[in-house]
Amino acid sequence: MINEYNKFLVSTSYFQNKKLQIGVPYKHQHILSLQGFNKASKEICSWNDYHPTPLHLLSDLAEESGVALIAYKDESCRFSLKSFKALGGAYAVANLLIKKLKEIGITANSSDLIAGTYTELTLKITVCCATDGNHGRSVAWGAQKFGCNCEIYIHRNVSIGREKAIAKYGAKVNRIEGNYDDSVRIAAEVAEENSYYVVSDTSYAGYTDIPKDVMQGYTVMVDETMKQMKEMPTHVFLQGGVGGFPAATVSFLVESLDCPPIFVVVEPTNADCLFQSAVNGEPTVVHGDLDTVMAGLACGEVSLLAWSIIESYVPHFMTIEDKSVSITMKLLANGKTPIVAGESAVAGLAGFLIASHDSSLKETLKLDNNSRILVFGTEGDTDEKMYEKMVGRSATEVLKDS
Ligand SMILES: Cc1ncc(COP(=O)(O)O)c(C=O)c1O
Which domains does the chain have, with CATH numbers? Predict the structure, then answer.
């Protein structure tokens, strides 16, 4: 089956960020830091339903693709939300409420919020954001868990299944005409008019504090992974939307490791804002419908803070086409240990498998039989109908015999 990745080479693009100096020490602590991670970890690990997600070793796939190891961090069972985004948006909501209470002289933590100690005060607050699904679900879940109101903006292509999954947590969900970037702008306008607090996973000029918290929440997943790995990875393939997830991972690994791995950012061909920004050497907007099956990666504008980390430490950028997604989802579903991986979860793995079929790309990326590959399966069947359509079986059926 993995020979099939050969055919995706023609439609794959690659760009090397030649401006980058390998081995430069981490200097973006003003955005994301180990100190920020410690704070996030203390809060998130205190939530009653917290537990680390599993790390699977895909030994057969590693052997077939000629590397020493492929480690797959499986976020399909992150809380009840089925994606790593549960860590970011919800943490940012908790932190916002903690800060607002502090302004009126109350020192609180997430446990106080979960216990409802200050509900009378926090219920006066409304959080608001745009989403293509997973981030909004996290914010809505966080608002319900920590005791505030929530209003979410989704764009025209967000599936009904994803809409319902957000509404389940009591949020008011509004669907707009236009794409993801339009929904970001509308959410910001509505928040301004109504004195809501925007809890966005993307940062833009004049709006940076809360997206830092969102990204810092993601680093808890990276820390778990490092504790689960016996040997550090040599390569990490990271799927990118606005760039928050790759930036969080890169920041944590570059700051904490003496010899950080080689990073490769992978995006859908039709929504390649990080790739285009790398090509142009500056944040670059990708226009149009951003049409891709990888719903979580359908972003046309980079997060400015995330970009500043990515451009400093990521040497390699790839784009992949949608057709490589369903085959990778099936590969994981049919593996020795069946894994439920959603459409946006597999881009990093697909990018690696495609690269492993091209000798010149392998050489450029320094991939050989000593390489230890790390990928993050960032979601499970967050859109259940879409998962079943693409894999041919539901998640329950996939996991039946495991
Ligand atoms: C499942 C999944 N993976 C990866 C990403 C990419 O994250 P970011 O937009 O922070 O780059 C997203 C974004 O929503 C996502 O939902």
Answer: 2-84+211-399 (3.40.50.1100), 85-207 (3.40.50.1100)
| Ligand 1 mutation pick, 79, 82, 85, max ligand atoms within 8 A of CB | 85
DSSP 5-43: GGGGGGG-EEEE-TT--TTPPP--TTTS-HHHHHHHHHH
Q: Cβ(74) to ligand 1 under 6 A? A: no
- State the distance from the centre of ligand 1 to the C-alpha of 85, rounded, in angstroms: 7
344 lines ligand 1 (CB under 6 A): yes
Q: Residue 323 in contact with residue 346, Cβ under 8 Å?
A: no
Per-residue pLDDT of the chain (402 residues; tens, 9 = 90+): 778 898 999 899 999 998 787 788 999 999 999 999 999 999 999 998 999 999 999 999 999 999 999 999 999 999 999 999 999 999 999 999 999 999 999 999 999 999 999 999 999 999 999 998 999 999 999 999 999 999 999 998 899 999 999 999 999 999 999 888 889 899 999 999 999 999 999 999 999 999 999 999 999 999 999 999 999 999 999 999 999 999 999 999 999 999 999 999 999 999 999 999 999 999 999 998 788 999 999 999 999 999 999 999 999 999 999 999 999 999 999 999 999 999 999 999 999 999 999 999 999 999 999 999 999 999 999 999 999 999 999 999 999 977
pTM of the model: 0.97
d(CA 185, CA 74): 32
Q: Is 345 in the pocket of ligand 1 (CB under 6 A)?
A: yes
Collapsing DSSP to helix, strand or coil, 197 comes out as: strand
Q: How far is the CA of 240 from the centre of ligand 1 (A)?
A: 6
Report the catalytic residues.
85, 132
Cα–Cα distances (Å) from 332 to 12, 74, 344, 366, 397, in that order, read 21, 11, 13, 25, 13
